[in-house]
Amino acid sequence: MATERLHIPEVFEPDAKLPADLLALRKFAWYLDEAFVIPGTSMRVGASSIIGLIPGFGDIAGALLSTWIIAGALRHRVPAWIIARMVFNIGIDLVFGSIPIAGDIFDFLYEENVRNMRLLEAHRDRSRPPRRTRRIALILILIIMFLLLLALAVIVMLIAAVIWLIGSRASF
What we know:
mainly alpha, single chain, flat
């Protein structure tokens, strides 16, 4: 007889048991990634995808908005390696979302805020009280600076690609 694997879906606390700040973050993640239904489909998009349509500014603004969820993760004592994974999720969206046209499609499909919220809920330290804002400010500032430097690197690479394309077109 073959052994059957039991699949237990992820279980998160109901809204009534969550602290108020996590409820607000859950709503914020939903608003950024899934707030609007695309007419005629069952697909949902959020404000982050719509903001991402603004060339140059949109993806950077979306990444900065996403750091609010990381602030919540820092507050609720999520382990550092999970925080790094959350920053990676935002970085992926920032880098790939910055690619013209294809990046906009990627923005519609990649829901980093909902992913990060799930990571926060699954890995928060329930045994200790949340940290105060002063304790997380420096780390959050460093994360924001990293994301801004990443955005600057993406902009420089896109400009270099455009200059290269113009130069290679001139040789024809």
